[in-house]
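Why does residue order matter? Because the sequence determines the fold. Keep that principle in mind as you read this record.
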Amino acid sequence: MKNHIQINERDNVVVALREIQPGTVLGGVTALEIIPAGHKMAMKDIAKGSEVVKYGFRIGNAKEDIKAGSWIHTHNVGTALGDILDYTYEPVDTEIPATKEATFLGFNRPDGQVGVRNEIWIIPTVGCVNNIATTIAKQANLRLGKMDAKVQERVEEVIAFPHPYGCSQMGDDQENTRAILSDLINHPNAGGVLVLGLGCENSNIEVLKPYIGEVDPGRVKFLVCQDVEDEMEAAAEMVDELIAYAATFEREEISASKLIIGMKCGGSDGFSGITANPLVGKFSDLLVSKGGTTILTEVPEMFGAETILMNRCADEQLFDKTVCLINDFKQYFKDNNQTIYENPSPGNKKGGISTLEDKSLGCTQKSGSSAVKGVLAYGERVSTPGLNLLSAPGNDLVAATALAASGAHIVLFTTGRGTPFACPVPTMKISTNSTLAGKKKNWIDFNAGVLVEDQEMQETAERFFEYVLKVASGEKVSSEKAGFHDMAIFKKGVTL
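Structure:
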């Protein structure tokens, strides 16, 4: 295994692939101090105020004179990012040639959508009925376990998605809740849905119905708890009907062009932009080459790398939407009197990420190299094949839920620190390093750390693509095996 990597020939730093001791020579430069794994070492003298370059781009400016061989981190490099900016569209060639068709085993839905799971979802309209929803799901799974074998084979699980919202909200917050709930109700991974309301909430079922649109009454049922004498009894009857409906579906061979995959990272480290994120980028390009769709989100972690995405926009209209995507999110920070460049988090810093530019340039590696074909508002469902950008914050649970609500069948989640969370759809954890993969086998589904050991990117990307198809065909990821199903909605404003 190599002990360091220079990512781009323009870089004036290298990244340590293992802890480097003082006196070790890296690329002809002697380390002056300990360089932790995942952290950066200066390859030449860098004067105070000069650019520190990684990935071929500036990741910040030196806070002091830095000698060649020095450890570069938050103590001697700071962000060079500005505030709300003006941008110029400078399009680059992003043509991805078509590749051979691939297939997976999924569920064809009557409305033309496809699903990779056939679950029953219980969606509360308000947090007041969360415990009822959770209990309904628990009891339904016990009944499901005693049903006909074919039903058990086809209907995978009954899942409740509790959340604290749906009432005492105003403006954008209330609209966000309604949009996300309606998106999930219409998600094709759910073979059947029970919409569970209280009756007196702001976002009650009758208010929510116009957001949901037309539904198949066999697939979606509504229950207002205040309207019935025994909500548990009424819910059990409805859920059993939903199970019977969902059991009419079975897996069929479906083109991978129908797949919609969300891309997210969290608990990043110095290896994220070298292993797991570029691997997901290769996956994105490969799926796009087969006519499929990918969605990149966490807008604050595009800051500092946004021009790379802007110049890959397929046309100037999409470029303008991307500019708004970035600057509107910066304005959101300013409106709340918060520092735009507060990132990276303590865990990110411990893993070797020094500035937001450092994090963002690694984060956007997940987008691969294809053209941006769509730019989505928070809660908007994807409609254009290819790479899409989605407005959502960096928070893992909120962003992953937003990806699911926009239509993602699966979320690919890269991590250097590890996390057990999930979202409403299968949430696949890809480790950036082999140490994490070995330590947290119950969390990690795929180890990208091999890319700095003995495996080539192309071979690993092809193996990873096949693994995603297996998950789309029904193979459970670790969080599903553990029974984890999380959901979080973006909250911006006042709670009444």
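Residues 4-78 form a domain with the Archaeosine Trna-guanine Transglycosylase; Chain: A, domain 4 fold (CATH 2.30.130.110).
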